[in-house]
């Protein structure tokens, strides 16, 4: 069995996803550095490795657990790509305040425009849906279900941390 037999659309998707998220991490790190310089403080710092590991596990599971010759459901690829537009709408809306971590900056306004007019946590809504949809693109229903349940659990705790911090800021 040649190495190329082990690489198919799911593996290419995982590599592209890893590259995308890597570029986002660079943007997040730049914003984090700037926010800290302005006096922002981090909430839930000890939980961030759980968030990062869970996200990387999802990407790795796509690469290693979905067969290279898995069928491709093209309408779901279109749907997944549409989710990316929403994802970048969120990132653009938050601008310099967007990070992978939870930071608060005293005196900074709570964002209530863009997708935040409709949902309190639009970024997490998008990531929950994309965690389910991308494995489904390749017919991996079990993987989609398991990773979405895991990701939902991790993000529910992260949202609770963010909401507690926002409630403190509003007082």
Give a brief rundown of this model.
The chain has 171 residues and is mainly alpha-helical.
Topology (SSEs and partners):
Blueprint: H1 9-37, E1 41-43, H2 48-65, H3 74-94, E2 102-104, H4 122-137, H5 141-170
Antiparallel strand pairs: 1-2
Helix pairs in contact: 1-2, 2-5, 3-4, 4-5
Description:
This protein is mostly helical and 171 residues long. It has five helices and two strands, in the order H-E-H-H-E-H-H. A two-stranded antiparallel ribbon has the order 1-2. Helix 2 packs antiparallel against helix 5. The longest helix is centred in the C-terminal third of the chain and has 30 residues. The model has no long low-confidence stretch (mean pLDDT 93).
Keyphrases for this structure?
about 170 residues; mainly alpha; two-stranded antiparallel sheet; 5 helices; about 65% helix; about 5% strand; elongated
Structural category is mainly alpha
- Number of helical runs? 5
The number of E-state strands comes to 2
Please compute the radius of gyration using only Cα atoms: 17 Å
- Please give the alpha-carbon distance between the first and last residues: 63 Å
